[in-house]
Amino acid sequence: MTESTCQKVQQGQFDAIVEYYDHSWFDYWFLWLNPGNLAVHFGYYDENTRSHSGALENLNRVLADLAEIQPGNHVLDAGCGIGGSSIWLAEHCDAKVVGIAPVQSQLVRARKSVLRRKVGDHVHLVCGDYANTSFPDQTFDVVWAMESLCHAPSKASVYKEFFRILKPGGRLVIAEYMRKARPLDAENEQLVNDWLTSWAIPDIDTAAHHEQVARAAGFREIVNRNVTAQVEPSLRRLYRLSLLGKPADRLLKKMGFRRRTRNVDGAQKQFLALQNKAWFYSIQTARKA
To answer: For the whole prediction, is pTM greater than 0.90?
Structure first.
C-alpha cells in the first residue's frame, strides 16, 4: 500500500491503535527495545536465558520452533510493529516474510531497519489490516502473530482470514494474552479493562473462545500452552519500570509532553491483574488441514 492508502486504512477503525503506538514510542525505545532484535513484545525465560535481551530473542525462537519454520517458508508476520520478528525470521530461519501493520510510523522505522540489516530480499512490509488482507488464497506456509491479535475487535474474523491465506498444511502460531474467564469478578474486570483501554486493546478472550473460533474457521490440531511462568519475569520487569517511571510520567504530563498516553498506568494494571490470575500468557498453535 502507498502511504496515502495506509492513512485511509488508519481512519476510524485504527485511530486508537495508531495514537497509542505513536505516543508510546519513547517508552518502548528508552525502556525496552534491544537494538539487536527490535522486540516490542515480552520475553521468554528458561534455564538458558538470564538477560532481558536474551529473553526477547528467545520468544522468537520458541515460536519459530513450534511453527516448524523452515528455510524458504513464506511467513506472514501479522501485526509486525517495527519489524523485529520479521527481521529475526529472515536472519535466523531464512524465511521469506511479509510484515503487515496499520501504524505507518512503525513501518517507517521497520523499513529503515530492513535496509540497515540488509534483509530487503527476505522482508516485505505492508500497511494494512491483517484481518482483511488482499493476499491471494493459500499464500503463506505460516502465519505468526506476536501479541497483536489482542488489538482485533473480532477474533473470529482474524482466524477466518488466517485460514484463507494459509496453504494446506500451513501452521498458525500466536503469542497472546488470554483472560481466565468471562466474566471475571468486578474487581478484576475493572483492572483488565483499565489495562486494555490504556493500550488500545478492545478486549481479550478466553482460551476456549480462541479455540472455538479457530476450529470454526477450519483449523485443527489447536493447542494452547500457558507459558506465564516463563514470561512472568519479563512482565514483572515492565511493572517495576512503570513504578520507577511514574514520577517522570506525571511530570511530563504536567508539562504537556505526555497528555495522550496512559502506557505507564496500563503496565501497572496489567501486572496487578496477572497477580490476581485474571489472565495468562499463551502460545497457541494450529494447523490448516
So the answer is: yes
